[in-house]
## 1
Amino acid sequence: MDARRIGADADVLIAGAGPAGCAAAIVCAAAGLRTVLAERAPGPLARPGEALHPGAETLLARLLPDGFEDAVGARHEGITVGWGAAPRFEPFGQDGNGSWRGFQVNRQRLDALLLDRARKAGADVRLGCRALEPVVEGGAVTGVRFNGAAAPLRTTTVIDATGRARWLSRALGLAGPPRSPRLLIRYGYAAGSCPERDAAPAIVADRAGWTWTARVAPERYQWMRLDFVPVQSQRSGLPEEFAGLVPEGPARAADVSWRLCPAAAGPGWFLAGDAGVLLDPASSHGVLRALLSGWTAGSLTAAVANRAQEAERAAGAYQQWLHEGAERDMAHLSARYAQLGACGFG
């Protein structure tokens, strides 16, 4: 065993218990690593519902072998798309087993299932535990100081999965500038019946921005609106197609300006999920990227710990994989936004 592991309190410390952090914790704990999963919140929080591509089902089935149906609110065979043109239904595809189906998940339930799976896999889950600063020795991250702890937790690897907080990259001075104009989404939920939206979600875009609408559970719908030029008072209510529904509280907002950390991995650390790459929801890869990056960072951490791979090579491979996927998504979205005449893209 590596001497660093003998003197450490844990083999891996994962900050953040969303999909990325839980995926990493499940993989690391299942590989026999002493895994600590720290989350500053007291438990899974309510987050906007996510429409997942059918391709996410295989990965979720591996992470949650006992099933994830409890988190699924609706299934659909495609998406209605109106990108500067008349809306039309675009199916996901099919194979010998029938049509591929995406699904809407309740993020709070999904996160709870993943957290429980990480705990059962052997991870030491610590809720209400906030990472304050990393311990850096010899150019490598070797530990983390937490709120309320007298001494830092010593570990051989740290995985930052704290999402938009980007805790580790900020602490290491690695946070890069935004890769897009400032982008804000406003979103909310409504109750009632909208048969037009029951079969499939829809994304409809014009020169001002785009609107997403979807049924996320029986008699419950979600909407999102991104304006290329952020507005304060216009479009503050429900989309027109939801005019007959009852809003569930006021609309909320989130900054989804694109970010890509210049370094996604280094000596003793990885960035996973939104901590490494943040794109707006039109990319449709948010939760899938979080799960994949957590899985990949966890697998590479286990490979390095078990001496199946060199640490430097693992960090380089991870960075290349994460950056290539992010740049591809940014180029695709930039081209689509430029088609609409949005400034600052393409």
## 2
Amino acid sequence: MSASTALHLAAEIGGPPHYDAPHYTALAQLAERGTLDFVTLGDSFARPGLDALAVLSRVAPATRRIGLVPTVTTTHTEPFHVSSAVATLDWVSRGRAGWSAEVSTTGAEARLFGRRPAAPAVDLWREAADTAEASARLWDSWEDDAEIRDVATGRFIDRAKLHYVDFEGATFTVRGPAIVPRPPQGHPVTVIDGTGGPSQDAAARHADVVLVRATTPEQAAGIRAEVRRRAATYGRDPEALRVLVALTVDLGDAETVSEPGPESGPRLAARGSYYRGGPVDLAELIGQWHRGGAVDGFHLTPITPARDLERIVNGTVALLQHRSLFRTFYPGGTLREHLGLARPANRYALAEGRA
């Protein structure tokens, strides 16, 4: 199975707030046993809970292969700090980090910081796109071999291989260079929900993984084609995007009996991207949509994480593996390798002919 046709699976491990690291570690380890590409941990300034990026930095040493993708809100957050924190997660996980960009639109969230009022979503997603661009430049501001660590000469860094990024966005400027060396993946994986609205442009310009919501495989295929078309207009390779259907799953029900006919097989609930049933039917749905070429995979949000993630791994994933539709081992050590994505070249080394 080629990288472009491989099925990709990810899962959310959030839910009601927990204040003990072992809870999240156990869920991530369970997902890793199922060889899922990555887990996400949602976060928001609008609700109480631990910081997702810090939690996954704690989870990283207790896992070996699975990708770790926290939600990072770019509103009210310094882009330089966002870049440094995500790069740090990539280092402590040895190349398994990503980040899911999100914005904060409410006045209540703005008052938590007291620095500026709430703004329209379209402006905030433009700022999020600027943050993604500034972060990518900061990650490149150290060339891969910029560290010398020569005890004899006392030189730690080759300063010719550090670069000012001099980024100017609509709401901030960043000079750089970064304070964290270039991450193991070059650029940690960027995930953006790009179903529609103001986030879609940011997804097309900067995301490696785009999450979409669709109720039919035809709708999913149409959204994926549009996201890829937009990406191509920005000079990106559209085949380098991974488009995953975001699906909330409730696996507390029994399996259904499929009726014969062209519309046979498991279906989504009437309210949209929500599945309720058993793990076998979920495997059928995933297999049908992927075999039809509609999507690159699924991002599953268990409605009851402790119960449903176990049924996803030991039921749905096990059946997909038995049918040779999903891998049984990780193809590499980094999240980019799981997703079949190349490690980006360093833009500054390329400009100076050193790449």
## 3
Amino acid sequence: MFPERFSTLPEYAFPRLRALLDVHEAGGEPVHMTIGEPKHAFPAWVTDVIADHAEGFGRYPVNEGISELRAEIAAWIARRYGVTVDAEREVMALNGTREGLYNAMMALCPEAKGGVRPKVLIPNPFYQVYMVGALSVAAEPVFLNATAETGFLPDFGAVAPEVLDQVAVAYLCSPSNPQGAVAERSYWEHLIGLAEKHDFYIFADECYSEIYRGEAPVGALQVAREMGADPERVVIFHSLSKRSNLPGLRSGFVAGGPKSITRIRQLRNYAGAPLPMPLQHAAAAVWADEAHVIENRAAYGEKYALADEIMADFPGYQGPQAGFFLWLPVEDGEAAALKLWTETGVRVLPGAYLSRDTDGGNPGTHYIRAALVAPKDEMAQGLIRLRDCLQR
């Protein structure tokens, strides 16, 4: 009496990692570089805002987000991307973007496309909720390997036109997790053009958009508006987790066309878990403030520079354009992770745990992911141990 659609799911990455490593003693003082959980300080005044609105814990939260929160999100989108959105009709608050990335599939993916089971395009490696969202609506996940040869972004142009005609949704994470690649304006223009021609949604996961070096990454909704695309074509997802070092606040948002947001909101009336009211007020204040974001980005800039210095002679090293992960080439990701743990105490994630096997192989097999979230000195020590161990 159990559903078959989830029967072939691999074990989630972190339980799988614990099974690999925790049966062995650490070979040194542990340095955790596995989970993308920001460690920089969040704004100190956040707790004051929560305390000031603590009486709100005694009321049921507003499902779509209080008007103040949605207004601040819309204002941020306007400042960041130069795009005007209707805070009442085109924005909805989320209890973390994972909820939105999943429920948008439930709300917007049709039961069939062109008379057949719909397809969902997913970059490979990928954030695992993309695949589970597709399976939950009985769609067919189609994994597009994002490799060094493709600039660590999926090559949507390589998908056959007859396949694109069956696509209902294409997920894209930019800046990408784990590789830190950024989709340039021309890349978005090409993908949006394909979506317009073949009539599918683009779900743009932009949660790492505020951690970058150089110019700020262009946004999917921004490019879609510049192109005059169908207002419903692109749905964007953002979060305070990385931007503001607040993963525990669980505040994100989804924005898109009014018809799409209406459907997502209606489903959430039944199946969602809205953010508590005091946290919504805190989130509104955080979206309104940019000073802490600039400070946070500067701190990551120092880490980028330090990683570039330490890893300069590591074979195949490429510093990320954005985000806070290193995607490091190795002979075998699992073997490298086990070696690092047992010989040095450095804990990293095998790339294969973030990817799926395809006809072109598993694009994560020969990589490890290392998160640059620890304090700078600890991160540097971890990278030095990593470099020296894997080059022996």
## 4
Amino acid sequence: MAVEFGLFSQLPAQGADSKLPAANMLPWLAQDGIAATSRGRECQKKQAPFGGLAFLALDLLRGIAAIIVAIGHTSAVIPDYYGPAYSMCVAFFFVLSGYVLSHAYGEAIETGRMSFGGFIIARFARLYPLHALTWAVTFGSLIYLGAANSSWIFKPAMFETITLTQSLFTGEWSFNAPSWSIGAEFWCGFLFIALSSRNTILRTISIGTAVLIFALCELKDGFLVQFAPRYGVCLGMFLLGWTLYRLQLQIPPKIGWTAATIAFLLSVFPIFPLEHHPTGDIPYYILFAVAVASLAHASLTGIAAEAAAFSGNISYGVYLWHWPFLMVMSPKTPLEIAVFLALVITTATISFWLFERPARRFVLKISERARSPEKTPHPEAAVAQESRGR
């Protein structure tokens, strides 16, 4: 999973009326994860190109959540007697995404220094390349295992995969099952554009619509029953993250660490079957909200900071790569699970440096070259630096 996963820096310290040429946007977008790799307290405070801070504590949690989902899908270690509660970690990704997208892009869009089109391109460049690669590997694995054939390219699921609407229309599993949330993540970007608009009426309508859709989906099925209603729940979680950023609550980090620990433990060992009690999801949402609001301001030092930066880097890859490994390996024993995780983490690490970052640069370069002076007579944009995760 796209959750980013995360965008962790801010715009330059310039006036609201300042304009930055679109030609300068590529160097900023192309850098990702670099500012979060220095040591000690400097790792938390180091200035990114936009003067922002790395949310290292949230990076750490994102990686942990991705690993919980990966282990949960094995059905070998995390008990399934109360349903797949580990999937609640995906809701955490959306609270986090709403928060960090607001941090990274909110001011840019509100002040007109970033166009709506520029934002969508940035999100596409971040989410789609790895989604496409892992889908191709997963589809190849299905053919190898004899579970699919080339005729499957004409299935509705293929259309959903290409359009980032996985499971939304058919309600069926997508080829790379966890990628349904990448589709939800991308379409939440359009809600973010409306929330960042200066038009108060549009913003109010967007908030009301998101709340209504969330309430209908949550009260009907909750997060764990069907795929399609999850899109609506994710919309509400994204709005929650956006709201938390606007409020800038000052909560002691120890409360955030406690909330995150409880939420993750409940994701592994739920106390009742959530699929039969949709409102039982609410405590998870509250705990995730407290964790994000609190730990956005937390500092990490030394090895913890390095580990958190690494966790953020690999989180998206762990989320999307674990499914093809799971299909091929079918790990059951503790040793098999350990080997499975080692391979997934190694692949995610290689993928981040050798594919995700270069692929994003490539997409952004192509989009820039497609902008002709005739089509864009006065190109002006300011975009925030995207970092690890979604």
